[in-house]
């Protein structure tokens, strides 16, 4: 499996972590989703949305993720002062 198997974590979370920042094509994401995801972990009508989110993750620049974490931390500390 891409990214390894972390016990206690669902297959989708493992797949999402494996594709993050990797610039996979949508076709590749959909193929791996279909091959790797257990059918009982998602409803068939959710497939498009789940692959859409994988596409966001795979194309997200690392700088955006770092910026969002900093903003979240600032917001957290401002609320707790």
| Largest sheet, strands/sense/barrel | none
**Helix share, percent:** 55-70%
Enumerate how many helices there are, as a single number: 4
Q: Report the end-to-end length measured between terminal Cα atoms.
A: 43 Å
Tell me the Rg in angstroms.
Answer: 15 Å
Spans of 5+ residues with little confidence (pLDDT < 50)? Answer: none
Number of strands: 0
Helix and strand element order: HHHH
Rounded mean pLDDT is: 82
Strand content: under 5%
What characteristic shape results from the CA principal axes? elongated
In terms of structural class, how would the helical and strand content be classed?
Answer: mainly alpha
Your description of this structure?
There is one protein chain. This protein has helices at residues 11-19, 26-36, 47-59, 62-79. The protein is mainly α. The mean pLDDT is 82.
Observed structural traits:
81 residues, mainly alpha, 4 helices, 0% strand
Secondary structure elements and pairings:
Layout: H1 11-19, H2 26-36, H3 47-59, H4 62-79
Helix pairs in contact: 1-3, 2-3
Short description:
With 81 residues, the chain is mostly helical. It is 63% helix and 0% strand.
